[in-house]
Amino acid sequence: MAYVINERCIGELDGSCVDVCPVDCIYEGLTKRYINPGECIDCGACLPECPVDAIVAPTEGPDPIWIDDNAAFFAVPLPGRDAPLGSPGGAYGTGGIGVDTPLVTSRTKE
After folding, report:
1. What is 4-92's CATH topology?
2. Which pairing describes strands 33-35 and 26-28: parallel, antiparallel, or unpaired?
3. What are the two backbone dihedrals, phi and then psi, of residue 33, each rounded to the nearest 5 degrees?
4. Where are the beta strands (DSSP E) in the chain?
5. Fewer CB within 10 A of the end CB, N or C, for the chain?
6. 3-class secondary structure, 14
7. CA angle 61, 64, 69 (to 5 degrees)
8. Cβ-contact 49, 8 below 8 angstroms
9. Beta bridge mates, 35
10. Which cofactor does it need (predicted)?
């Protein structure tokens, strides 16, 4: 299991985690970031960089709802998109995706 970003990231797009990720597996939605479980190498470099402690290590037992949500960002078509994002091989080339999963959208901070 990969590292997981939970609800604390909603509305917090600081980007410190992205800057230290050696495999560029942290993608930006509209209001939250997502870790691609197929690209994450479980190195933990992102963990201490998150200013809101939204990243959870696999050994810390992340909430299954956020495990599923991070995976869904890549595995199912997001609102307004025809196909899943899949595994593009790094976030740098994709830029911001501009949309979140339905779960995150339902919890977006006003």
Report:
1. Alpha-Beta Plaits (3.30.70)
2. antiparallel
3. -105, 155
4. 4-5, 26-28, 33-35, 55-56
5. C
6. coil
7. 125
8. no
9. 26
10. [4Fe-4S] cluster; [3Fe-4S] cluster
